[in-house]
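Preliminary data (for renewal application), nicotinamide-adenine-dinucleotide complex.
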Amino acid sequence: MKVAPRFGPGHRILVTGGAGFVPSHLVEVLLDRGCTVVAVDNFVTGSKENVAHLVERPTFTLVEADVSEGLPTHHPALAERFDAILHMASPASPTDFALLPIEILRVGSVATLHLLDRAVADGARFLLASTSEAYGDPKEHPQQETYWGNVNPIGVRSVYDEAKRFAEAATMGYHRFHGLDVAIVRIFNTYGPRMRPDDGRAIPTFIAQALRNEPITVHGTGAQTRSICYVDDLVRGILLLLDSTETGPVNCGTEHEMTMRQLAELIVSLSGSSSEVAYVTRAADDPEKRRPDLTLARELLGYEPRITPEDGLRRTIDHFRQRMG
Ligand code: NAD
Ligand code: UDP
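Predicted structure:
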């Protein structure tokens, strides 16, 4: 299946969380395509630096606002109709689940409803950044989109998992009731330049530790797995979904599944570090294994990840090396 670009010059796209890691890469590709892009961000986990190289472009506007309060009415860039709304805003690191629980609940729920209302008013395509966390600690492996998941509704991860599950339900509710054109992407562990070294997720943490020759803090025995995706592959997948007329949910990521111990060793070796692995306490409800079934993405969108873990990690290590001096 080949998907033709649906959004390009003349189209106005709203990206919430546009100054974040993944969304800033999306913004850049949309601008390169000729779209007019408005990014709304409150910088709770993102930063202006991520889009500093884009602010001079006449087709780009960055608005500082909390989308859980609704879109600001006074800003001229937000007054005109949007052709597509990409709801990417949300803290996403498990560290944030304890630090920003209410913000996460609000941006997944209240903000999603505000943005869905706006999409109905504008007749826009609405794309939701959902997550592999919708599957919780999965009993099915690899995870297909038909799997309903295994989420602890009151556990330490639930503020994020259930907020995203609510956001999916809201998106489908608006699709069914209002006939809204929607798309849901379930994103699997993605990494790359512009992640924060102190963001708490495994890859930026391991790279920062390796570059400082500090112990690599592997949680538990490190036998738990993740399938890691370089940001360029994810962005291509999200744009294929945006350009299609598919509703989803569609998984996006790679099948490069590895244990966290293997990931730590790979990062140490690629960065030429002298770090040792240190085994530390593992958080509750941490998923045991995770790998997307990519059949739908391949069949509906023609999606194929291209970047190997070695290539992607090398690029990310180079970026961190420059940033950390
Ligand atoms: P990120 O924290 O770098 O980006 C999120 C952005 O949203 C940040 O710039 C943050 O400041 C902004 N934001 C948060 N709450 C906001 C609010 N109320 N109003 C305005 N802006 C707000 O994280 P990321 O990894 O780039 O994730 C982007 C999206 O993709 C998130 O929705 C996340 O849940 C989803 N996702 C990411 C991954 C991944 O592996 N990176 C996996 C699954 C899902
Ligand atoms: N992890 C780890 N050390 C760290 C951070 C994370 O071993 O310093 C583990 C974590 O317990 C999980 C995996 O790495 O099993 C992936 O965690 P991450 O926070 O990157 O993403 P998640 O998939 O849990 O959202």
